[in-house]
Amino acid sequence: MASIGHVAVGMALGRYETGAAAPWRRRLAVMAFLSLMALLPDADVVAFALRIPYAATWGHRGASHSFVFAAAVALAVAALARWKGESATRWGLLTLGAVASHGILDTITDGGLGAALFWPFSNARVFAPVRPLPVAPIGAGMLSARGLYVSGVEFLVFLPAWLYALWPRKARAARSVQVP
């Protein structure tokens, strides 16, 4: 994927977490954090620079795209949330959703090797039964006509998530209680 969908998922989760009443800085920070969590599995592109083969366990779309990896990151965030006095369960679940969504979304692309969702139990790369999204070129290839096409398709597919995340909402006014 071109990352547009991954960011949209993180932004929508951030909007869900903060709601309409949160100050805009908090909403922005939470949306940015969850977007980064949704993008985290693609940090494995460093494997190309380290000459780790694409199909290797730690290659692109390998172990970092698994549910176990998502759970480990979620546990770390939950521990940090507890330490900060926040709800560990809520932050753990939000992070799990953001990180795990990455591998799932990568399985609906029409190229690559699939994602190792079930690592370490299986190194098999899997695809979803239906694969409607075109696979994005890696690196500078995103600046090509193909990259622009993929970005456009992804933007349209994830438009509902973008609208949910960014549509302005008014905070509910506090009801005033009149005392007789």
UniProtKB/TrEMBL annotation:
Gene Ontology molecular-function annotations: hydrolase activity
Protein name: Metal-dependent hydrolase
Keyword tRNA-binding carried by entry: no
Keywords associated with the record: Hydrolase, Membrane, Transmembrane, Transmembrane helix
Pfam families, sorted: YdjM
Record-annotated membrane-spanning stretches: 28-50, 62-81, 148-167
InterPro entries named among the record's database cross-references: YdjM-like (IPR007404)
